[in-house]
Amino acid sequence: MKIIHAEVIVTCPGRNFVTLKVVTDQGVYGIGDATLNGRELAVASYLKDHVCPVLIGRDPRNIEDTWQYLYKGAYWRRGPVTMSAIAAVDMALWDIKGKMAGMPLYQLLGGASRERVMVYGHATGRDLPEALDKYAEHIDQGFQAIRIQCGVPGMQSVYGVTKGGGAYEPATKGWPQEESWSSEKYLDFIPRLFEAVRDRFGFETHLLHDVHHRLTPIEAARLGKALEPYRLFWMEDPTPAENQEAFRLIRQHTVTPIAVGEIFNSIWDCKQLIEEQLIDYIRTTVTHAGGITHMRRIADFASMYQVRTGAHGPSDLSPVCMGAALHFDLWVPNFGVQEYMGYPQAALDVFPHAWEFRQGSMHPGDAPGLGVDIDEKLAARYPYEPAYLPVARLEDGTLWNW
Ligand code: GCO
Ligand code: MG
C-alpha cells in the first residue's frame, strides 16, 4: 500500500482552517487538521513544500515510522509549526488505518473507557449579570462543566469576552488588535465573580476559568488561594509556562487545581510540570502536539503522576481535530474533560462529521477512521482571509502576555 498524493487545503468558512489530505493507491484517503491560529500559512507551506513530497511512495500503514521520520528526519525538532504539520500527517494516517479496518479510531486505540466525553462550554459576559445569564444558559443546555469569563470593571477589553456579546473569536481580520490589561483590577474583581456564581447556582457544576497567561507566579498564587472557597475544577494558564519552576511557587500557596498546556507542542514542554506534579490537567491537543501518536505518549506519562487530560478545543482547531480529540478522549484512561467552543455553521458544513454534542457531552461517532470529511467544493468557496490574534498591553503601554 502506498501514498500517491498529498495536498493542503486552506479554507475560511467563518475562520481559517488548514487541512491535509493524504490519498493512497487503494482509493482510501485520510485527512488531518494543521490549523495554527494566526500563523496558518506557515504550516501550510511546511506541509506543501517540505512534507507532502516525501510522503509520496510511503506505506501509510506505518504510522509510527512516518512520525519518527518527520520528527527526527527534519533535524530541527519541536515547535508549533513543525508539530502541527506532523500532527496533520499522523491524523490522516490514523484516519486511513481506521477506514481500512472498518473501525472508528477509538476502537484502534483500545476501545471506549467511558460512554461519552464530558465537555466544557464557555459562559462569557461583558459584566457580571450577563456572565451569570450565560452560565444559566449553559446549565439549561446540559453542561456539567462550564468555563466562566467576565468583563472587569474599569477595563475596556478582557480575554475571552466579545465586545458585542455573542460567540468569542479572538482572531480578527486586518492588523492585530490591541487590548489593555490591569492585573490589579482583574485580581480584585475575579473572586467576586466566583462568589456570585456559587451563590446563585451552588456547587453542582464544575467551574473553570482561564487566566490566559496574564499573572506573575505570586499573583497566580494569590488568585488560586482566593478562589479556594469556590472549588474550581481548574484555574487555567495562571502564568506563562516557559519557566516550569514558577509553578512550584503557585503550588506552595494553593490547592486550586491547575491546567496548562494549550500552547505546548511536545512531551518535553510538559515534562517538569508533570513529573513534579505541578499541574493537575494537561491541555495539549492532537493538532498542536504531534497527533494521536504523540498525545498518547504525553497522556501515558501524565497518568503515572495522576495528571489528567483536559484538551484544548477552541473554534480555531478544526472539526477534524475535534473528531480526533473525541476518539482520544473516549479511550484515554486518565481523561479529565474536553473543551468545546462550537463552530460557525459554515465550518460545520465544510467538514461533515460523525461526532455529536448532546446535553453537555460528546461522542466521536462510529464511522470508520476519524469520522470527519472535508467538502472540497464548498471549502473552495471560502478563500483564506488573513487574521491575527490580539496583543495585550499594560495600562502604561508595556507589551504583556495576551
Ligand atoms: C482556550 C484558549 C483559546 C486561545 C485560542 C488562541 O482556552 O480555549 O485560551 O481561546 O486563546 O485558541 O488561538
Ligand atoms: Mg486557554
Automatic annotation (TrEMBL):
Give one GO molecular function term.
magnesium ion binding
Residue ranges occupied by any Mandelate racemase/muconate lactonizing enzyme C-terminal domain in the UniProt entry: 129-257
Q: Name one GO biological process term.
A: carbohydrate catabolic process
- What Pfam families does the record point to? MR_MLE_C, MR_MLE_N
Q: Which domain of life is it from?
A: Bacteria
InterPro entries in the cross-refs: D-mannonate_dehydratase-like, DgoD-like, Enolase-like_C_sf, Enolase-like_N, Enolase_C-like, Mandel_Rmase/mucon_lact_enz_CS, Mandelate_racemase_C, Mandelate_racemase_N_dom
Return the protein name.
Answer: Bifunctional D-altronate/D-mannonate dehydratase
User: Organism source for this protein?
Assistant: Bordetella flabilis
